[in-house]
Amino acid sequence: MKRTTILLPDDLARVVDDERRRRDVSTAELVRLALRSYLGLDADRPRRLPFAALGRSGHSDTSERVDELLERDWGRPADG
What pLDDT band is residue 49 in, cutting at 50, 70 and 90? Predict the structure, then answer.
């Protein structure tokens, strides 16, 4: 394991301390759990792919209309 030091504002540090006491875990364990959740690394859930649907246009015929769309958006024929 790698040791990392973080600085927290007082209000956040109080919330972290309250939550670690409520869960009866160490601060380090609570932070590890929070980071795993935030980063989508929960063991019981599939990892979310942040790039999925990145290029979604809402059109189902984009591949058939590529020349038309490129000319419209770039102002010149796709082959030139």
Answer: low
**In angstroms, what CA-CA distances link 29 with 20, 21, 38, 68?**
8, 11, 14, 55
Neighbours of 62 (CB within 10 A): 13
Contacts of 59 (CB under 8 A, 6+ apart): 65
Q: Tell me, what's the pLDDT at 21?
A: 96
Does the structure show a pLDDT above 60 at 79?
no
Q: Angle 10-23/27-38 helices, nearest 10 degrees?
A: 100
Spell out the residues 6+ positions from residue 41 whose beta carbon is closer than 8 angstroms to its own.
Answer: 35, 47
